[in-house]
Design goal:
The protein is built from four helices and five strands; from the N terminus they run E-E-E-H-E-E-H-H-H. By secondary structure, the chain is of the alpha+beta class. The protein folds into two domains: 75 residues, no CATH class; 32 residues, no CATH class.
Length: 108
């Protein structure tokens, strides 16, 4: 699952033979904010790990579900890209806008 928020972008997966989810990110600060605000018992943030995501940490399914619930409850903006610009800067918002544009190709 990809999870794009106004404080970070995450890829959440479950590896084979693992009871935990792995939350991956391209930017360490995204995982740090996730831990600070929503998952205080997020596993140790690991740098590297052999894939294109530079950072990762483990979390239980239940803790991730609770975090997502809290993230949704904290939505207070009428425009996602503007909120990203406010929280993370225009450069990050521009990337989100480019992704938004690419995803419009899915519409019929």
């Amino acid at each position: 699952m990809w999870l794009m928020t106004n404080f970070g972008f995450f890829s959440v997966i479950q590896n084979k033979n693992d009871d935990f989810l792995t939350v991956r990110s391209r930017i360490k600060r995204d995982l740090e904010v996730l831990e600070e605000r929503y998952i205080p018992n997020l596993g140790h943030i690991i740098h590297g790990g052999g894939t294109d995501y530079q950072y990762r940490a483990k979390v239980s399914h239940g803790d991730m579900a609770e975090a997502i619930k809290k993230i949704v409850m904290d939505i207070d903006y009428p425009n996602f890209k503007n909120s990203v610009a406010e929280k993370q800067g225009r450069k990050r918002a521009k990337v989100c806008g480019e992704l938004w544009e690419v995803l419009t190709t899915l519409q019929e």
